[in-house]
């Protein structure tokens, strides 16, 4: 197990360094932040002074070395747009994105697994056909269109839910959450549903396919021959053997939700990391963009590690080193 941790730690360091290098290299060509900060009325001397103060005249490798050295201590520099430490901006926006992502994943996982099992067990029923049709629509429609349709129906036509913002939030230390207020929940429902539709449809179809495959296997026939109830066969034996691919998809989708919540946060003006990244791109705010991508890479690394660990919880045969003993 120690070897497993060391190997994963080394892989994580390589991934993060590579992402930081590529992001820092690409963002050098996004635009000139000095022009955005000073405007068209500034003189060339003003521009040169600001570039020197920001370190933009240094060679690329010098700028990158300074960025990596500072990032290792949690310092991602100063936002060129807001003149605020990037770490403070991320700390301020991260709770909103994390809250939105976690609620979306819970909705997608609970409903996706439940619907997938129902569709597999009652595959010839009207409910199964309806749910499969819903899953096809959920996979086909782009996220921004789903969000706009939700706003049109539930905000404009029915007037039930707000269409933008995070609503009233409570502070727990530096962490802010809307889960403790009714207004926060009202603002969270539409963006969370929008973000979960694709993942819900994907998980449902995966669980259905895996369940149908497992239900045709010999050990299920043996379980039925032993006289076990259908409930025990379906949920104790069949469902357990579908969890590994489901864990993989849920883990990857959690990282994807955090990384690609940009569209949803823009549609609903949700004050999270995605909206911060879009604003940084428009302003060529290189420190914020680079820090965002490094954070997303770190989230994927941590999630993949967690998924690998959950494999060993679900199936003890996958524990590191077990295959060597046998």
Notes on the structure:
This protein is mostly helical and 326 residues long. The protein has a domain at 89-276: MetI-like (MetI-like fold), CATH 1.10.3720. Helix content is 73%, strand content 2%. It has 15 helices and two strands. Strands 1-2 form a two-stranded antiparallel sheet. Helix 1 runs antiparallel to helix 14 (286-314) and helix 5 (86-121) crosses helix 8 (182-215). It is globular and about 85 Å long.
Structural class of the secondary structure composition? mainly alpha
Count every helix, treating DSSP H or I runs of 4 or more residues as helices. 15
Query: What about the largest sheet?
Result: 2 strands, antiparallel
- State the low-pLDDT regions, or none: 322-326
Q: Which secondary structure elements does this structure contain, and how are they paired or packed?
A:
Layout: H1 2-26, H2 33-38, H3 44-54, H4 60-71, H5 86-121, H6 126-140, H7 143-157, E1 170-172, E2 175-177, H8 182-215, H9 218-225, H10 230-238, H11 243-259, H12 262-267, H13 273-283, H14 286-314, H15 322-325
Antiparallel strand pairs: 1-2
Question: How do you describe this structure in short?
Answer:
With 326 residues, this protein is mostly helical. The chain is 73% helix and 2% strand.
């Amino acid at each position: 197990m120690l070897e497993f941790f060391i190997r994963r730690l080394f892989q994580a360091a390589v991934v993060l360094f590579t992402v930081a290098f590529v992001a820092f290299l690409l963002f050098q060509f996004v635009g000139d932040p000095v022009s955005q900060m000073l405007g068209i009325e500034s003189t060339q001397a003003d521009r040169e002074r600001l570039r020197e103060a920001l370190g933009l005249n240094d060679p690329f490798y010098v700028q990158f070395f300074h960025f990596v050295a500072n990032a290792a201590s949690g310092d991602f520099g100063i936002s060129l747009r807001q003149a605020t430490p990037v770490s403070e901006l991320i700390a301020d926006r991260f709770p909103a994105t994390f809250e939105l992502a976690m609620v979306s994943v819970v909705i997608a996982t609970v409903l996706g697994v439940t619907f997938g099992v129902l569709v597999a067990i009652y595959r010839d029923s009207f409910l199964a056909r309806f749910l499969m049709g819903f899953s096809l629509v959920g996979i086909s429609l782009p996220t921004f269109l789903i969000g706009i349709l939700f706003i049109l129906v539930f905000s404009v036509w029915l007037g039930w839910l707000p269409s933008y913002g995070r609503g009233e939030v409570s502070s727990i230390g530096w962490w802010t959450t809307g889960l403790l207020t009714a207004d926060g929940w009202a603002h969270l429902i539409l963006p969370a549903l929008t973000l979960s539709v694709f993942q819900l449809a994907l998980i449902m179809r995966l669980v259905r396919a895996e369940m149908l495959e497992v239900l045709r296997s010999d050990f299920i026939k043996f379980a039925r021959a032993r006289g076990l109830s259908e409930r025990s066969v379906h949920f104790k034996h069949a469902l357990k053997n579908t969890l590994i691919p489901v864990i993989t998809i849920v883990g990857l989708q959690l990282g994807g939700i955090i990384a690609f919540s940009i569209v949803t946060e823009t549609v609903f003006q949700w004050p999270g990391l995605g909206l911060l990244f879009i604003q940084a791109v428009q302003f060529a705010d290189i420190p914020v963009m680079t820090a965002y991508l490094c954070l997303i890479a770190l989230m994927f690394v941590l999630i993949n590690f967690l998924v690998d660990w959950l494999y060993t919880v679900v199936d003890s045969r996958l524990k590191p080193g077990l295959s060597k003993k046998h």
